[in-house]
Design brief:
By secondary structure, this protein is mainly beta. Helix content is 9%, strand content 47%. It has one domain: Immunoglobulin-like, CATH 2.60.40.1240. The strands form 4 sheets. The chain has a 5-stranded antiparallel beta sheet with strand order 1-2-5-11-9, with no helix packed on it. A 4-stranded antiparallel beta sheet has the order 8-7-12-13, with no helix packed on it.
């Protein structure tokens, strides 16, 4: 009987870092608000899903380190956008801002809604009827609660639990 040498199974580096990122990402966030809130205007449907405080630092798949500036933290918004028009159109996530009083904070990062960070374009083109979900990171002052999210003219209140 021949016994072939047994090598321990290895995870590819991508799988390892994706799992590591998932554990790191999931363990460092506090959910502030989780509720589906829909708004419609100008042929777009915007659905807010979740507001989370943190994590306050991460490394994207392309090895870029993200950290908020001094005195700030990352607030994360999970958001879906659907193109209700009859033709393809571009949506700008840079039209989304978290507001506190008269101050607006634009997203510093737009990524896929997965456990690892894969930055993608802030201005995707959506086909007619297409819906996408993205996770947006905003630099936001520590100790201050956000009042609302305004996205393509749609206002969504962000009262915390």
């Amino acid at each position: 009987m021949y016994n072939a040498p047994v090598r321990p199974a290895r995870l590819s580096s991508f799988v390892f870092f994706a799992l590591f990122g998932l554990v790191l990402f999931a363990g460092c966030a506090t959910t502030l608000l989780e509720q589906d809130i829909k708004r419609q205007s100008d042929g777009w449907t915007v659905t807010f899903h979740k507001l989370a405080d943190g994590p306050n630092g991460f490394t994207s798949n392309d090895a870029i380190d993200y950290h908020p500036t001094s005195g700030q933290r990352f607030l994360w918004v999970t958001l879906s956008v659907r193109n209700d028009a009859r033709s393809s159109r571009q949506f700008s996530f840079e039209s989304c801002a978290i507001n506190q009083g008269d101050t607006a904070y634009l997203p510093l990062y737009v990524g896929m809604n997965f456990g690892y960070q894969a930055q993608i374009t802030k201005t995707p083109v959506l086909d007619a009827g297409e819906e996408i979900t993205r996770k947006l990171a905003f630099g936001y002052p520590k100790g201050v609660a956000p009042e609302r999210l305004i996205c393509f003219g749609n206002e969504i209140p962000l009262q915390q639990k």
